[in-house]
Design brief:
Number of helices: 4
Helix content: over 70%
Distance between the termini: 52 Å
Structural class: mainly alpha
Radius of gyration: 16 Å
Number of strands: 0
Mean pLDDT: 94
Number of domains: 1
Strand content: under 5%
Order of helices and strands: HHHH
Largest sheet: none
Shape: globular
Amino acid sequence: MQLIDWYNLFANALWIVALAISLTALGFAWWEAGTTETAFRSLLNSRGYQIVFNLSGLLFSIGVGMTEARRWAQVLWGLLALAFLWQIYLNIKSAR
């Protein structure tokens, strides 16, 4: 008898970690904006923060998609994950 459902534990941990990453990036950007006297919005639009937020969105989409029972909803979460992955690719590609 298995006491812990490891699949659901991993899937739920994935989207929770994704939200924690987003909140951490927001807090760090807020701190950085205050110490460097840079506009908060311009920091959030920088390439580094965009990659972090898109990575967080990717992990969130995968995690929630893994917990979803309906097939059509899994497909939609998968498409959203692919959109975040595409944005990460474009941000990294434009850095070169």
